[in-house]
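Support request, please re-run this one:
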Amino acid sequence: MTLADLQSWYRQGYPFFRTAHIGNVNLSTIILGKLGFPLTLHEDIPGDFPGYMPAFLKLKGKTYCLFPDSNRNTPLLSGLNLSLVPETIRNHCNYHTSIDLHLNTLKQIVPRVETWATYLTSNIEVVTRCLEALLKTQPAALFTAYITEDGRKYIFRSADTGIFIFERDDEQIKITYDVILDICLRYLDFLQILAQGKQVAPVAGLIMSVPFNLVLSIVIPQTNLTHHTNITFHFCGERMFHYMLQEPNESEYNQKIVAALYASILKAIPDLRQDIRLIFVPTTNIADLAPTPKDIDVSQYDCIENPTLNRAITTLAEDNRNLRLFSFTAL
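Re-run finished. Output below.
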């Protein structure tokens, strides 16, 4: 299939997702955004993935630390000192949190971008129904971590006998099922307020698992009359391609979890389609279109700082809509 094919299907109402993360998005994501595909940015960055680095700003192959003494993969950063921002970018910045900064600078060069929390809160009734159903049937597959009010992350360990257990070093946090839904919904609301650039007191929250997020991307469009289809498309980066399609044990496990979660939700929302298809489109060769040195990791800040580059990428994206891409069906 080609980029033009995918654009046509998107315009016909098929749901498409490019779920990147808060930070310095890569060139493939920028090109997809310029072609009109919606971008959703996850607030959490799992593990030690070096690509997005929300505590930094990438420009002309250099990185500028904007939040000193912070972990590079901590996205909920506040107190940005604008004097640390390169002068050519500074006039474009009125932001003081990492989410606000990276999200709103990206909005200057692509038409459709929002955070994942904003997308979920705009469909909160469906999200709530899914959570209520899965807390009864598949609780261990819902969350990967618990985040305290001061930003410490506790990794999920188990969900037995009505209690979720999260661990950090030798410390445990136990949370009963009856408060999980409230914690989850309050945290989503907190994140979407941050994305609006507003000041808000931090709250504790839960990080949803990849399979659960994928299931929500299948369920939510079906509840929207303009997207009532059994097919969902995901543009996937290298890491998602690995854990959903490439690595045999991990991908098989994740696909089974997605299928099991969807089967449970079907019982709670019987109007959903039973014959679903989840199609992944790897983005690895899309960046080869752009006229940039291959050893420089171009971000949204390069496009803002260099309008000529920005226009060139926009033109090339449109001129190369016949680029052929591979696709893989996971379900």
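The two ends are 18 Å apart (CA to CA). The chain has a mean pLDDT of 87.
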